[in-house]
Amino acid sequence: MLVRERMISPEKRLTANLPMTSVIGIFDKINSSWLPVIDQEGTMLGLLTWADSKRAEQMIDNGNKSSEKEMTVRDFMTTKYLFVNENIPIEEAARIMIDYDMSELPVVKDGYFTGVITDKIMLRVLMEITGARRQGIRLMVQLENKTGELLRLLQIVSDNQGSVEGLCTYCGSENEYLIATMRVEGIDKYILKQALKGMDCKVIDIR
What we know:
single chain; alpha+beta; CBS-domain; Alpha-Beta Plaits
């Protein structure tokens, strides 16, 4: 899954020459902490953040009337920012958002602003990967972290006419074991539990 498959394209965009007086209060009307600043061709020049807008508003409130008409988005926008290319894997975008504590991340292709990836989108992706909206059994097991163990687990499910509708894995402490969580349809929970006894694994949760 790539970023371009899940990104959204916000309608609201700003130009660098837009007077700041027309931008004051804009963040009270949208569900975002920043807006892209683009030129006529769509090239991304920077971001105007909520903090940038507040800084301009404070200057106006403090009576800086002499420069009020001259203040534009260009004077306050942020030109150093993190972004991702629309063709990178979505998990790489998630890593950047977590590492830098970001709830939204601009998406750019060849210098042009193309969209936004958000934490809410990432949560929806997680639901899809784990099959959270699907019916069936949620199984969570601990496996030995060695080649073939996950395949054995999937084979057991298949041999008992089960269908895996969602699967995610992660390594435990110091890669000593593998935790697999899956959504399984088409099989009775008791039958699956009994079938897993033939495999050297620990059933953490089955429901």
